[in-house]
């Protein structure tokens, strides 16, 4: 189906709509406007999210348009680490182990009216959801992927928020002019989890620095983050440096490079992190999940991006958000521009050299963007 030539709302009233999206935190955040559009269009339908187990835990007890989360088993190309690296898989050789077969049978027992997927070109996902026995399937589909009842092509360089809204529009779901920004509501439980950190801050205005990311190529140097943190500390802000437990070394490196004391924070869950971010004056971060979470809870952000990734992952608005962009396209080791067919996945030869593609972003540029956003205090 050509983009822009979407069908009208479904010719029947669905009882159950399942959306498959089993990826990481940032990927989850950018599907929220599409989920909201589906729920607004079909408020009486049960909206089921097929996702990784952490999503069910994160949404438990949290106001959400999602009615139910079902965790899906590991399956190559759908929710395992191979898929998250963007590798193209040969679905003909993908085994469907017993656990996956049982899951498909369980989905058939759900008697789903609609199944939608919001990840990738369909080579691995479409054969999976076609086994659910739904009345209608929708999503993205590039040949030679199995066909769906309604589909649009997957073209990599597109805002992920807008891409997912296009997928939702395949079943007639559309958003309002104010529904393009992802939103996460912070709960009392989140606040309680973040309270020990707040007690250390003692009510002072604070900023959050997040120096980590899953991919080294998206990581700004610790010394550069320290330069930002020093400036903000001089302005009277407490500095909190966040990370996951596996990012403790990166957090420590920022603290070592600073001239001022800062608070390391690597033990909060997603709920506590949401609360901590929401009450901050500003978040400065690499292009990674917590940056998307910060925007979703409504805080001002400065994100550090590699130029090709801004197209997919940059914020849609600039009233509270800024982007510092690295225009370094060539790998320092081999000279390849790893941008086709998508970033860091060139067809031939492969470029997986461990270099940062954002280290050249000037500290002065990030400082200027931060200054534009910081409230006076």
TrEMBL record:
A GO-annotated cellular component: cytosol
Keywords: Glycosyltransferase, Transferase
InterPro entries associated with the record: Glyco_trans_9 (IPR002201), LPS_LOS_Heptosyltrfase (IPR051199)
Gene Ontology process terms (BP): lipopolysaccharide core region biosynthetic process
Pfam family, one: Glyco_transf_9
GO molecular-function term, one example from the UniProt record: ADP-heptose-lipopolysaccharide heptosyltransferase activity
Source organism superkingdom: Bacteria
Protein name: ADP-heptose:LPS heptosyltransferase
Organism taxonomic ancestry: Bacteria, Pseudomonadati, Pseudomonadota, Betaproteobacteria, Nitrosomonadales
């Amino acid at each position: 189906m050509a983009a822009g030539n979407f069908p009208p709302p479904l010719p029947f009233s669905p009882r159950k709509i399942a959306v498959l999206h089993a990826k990481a935190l940032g990927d989850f955040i950018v599907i929220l406007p599409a989920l909201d559009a589906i729920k607004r269009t079909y408020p009486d339908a049960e909206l089921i999210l097929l996702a990784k187990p952490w999503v069910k835990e994160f949404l438990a007890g949290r106001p959400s348009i999602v009615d139910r989360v079902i965790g899906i088993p590991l399956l190559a190309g759908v929710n395992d680490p191979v898929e998250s690296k963007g590798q193209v898989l040969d679905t003909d050789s993908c085994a469907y182990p017993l656990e996956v077969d049982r899951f498909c049978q369980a989905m058939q027992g759900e008697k789903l009216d609609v199944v939608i997927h919001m990840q990738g070109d369909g080579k691995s996902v479409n054969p999976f959801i076609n086994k659910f026995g739904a009345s209608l399937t929708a999503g993205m589909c590039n040949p030679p992927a199995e066909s769906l009842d309604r589909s649009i092509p997957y073209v990599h360089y597109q805002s992920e928020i807008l891409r997912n809204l296009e997928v939702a529009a395949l079943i007639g779901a559309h958003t309002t002019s104010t529904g393009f920004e992802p939103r996460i509501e912070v709960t009392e439980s989140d606040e309680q989890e973040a309270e020990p950190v707040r007690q250390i801050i003692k009510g002072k205005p604070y900023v959050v620095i997040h120096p980590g990311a899953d991919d080294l190529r998206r990581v700004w140097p610790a010394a550069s983050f320290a330069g930002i943190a020093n400036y903000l500390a001089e302005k009277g802000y407490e500095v909190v440096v966040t990370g996951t437990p596996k990012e403790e070394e990166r957090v420590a490196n920022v603290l070592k490079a600073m001239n001022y004391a800062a608070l390391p924070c690597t033990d909060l869950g997603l709920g506590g992190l949401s609360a901590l971010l929401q009450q901050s004056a500003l978040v400065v971060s690499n292009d990674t999940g917590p940056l998307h979470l910060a925007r979703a809870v409504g805080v001002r952000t400065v994100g550090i991006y590699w130029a090709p990734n801004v197209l997919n992952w940059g914020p849609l608005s600039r009233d509270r958000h800024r982007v510092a962009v690295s225009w370094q396209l060539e790998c320092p080791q081999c000279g390849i521009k790893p941008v086709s067919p998508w970033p860091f996945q060139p067809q031939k030869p492969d470029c997986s050299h461990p270099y940062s593609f954002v280290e050249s972003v000037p500290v002065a540029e990030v400082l200027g963007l931060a200054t534009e956003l910081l409230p006076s205090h």
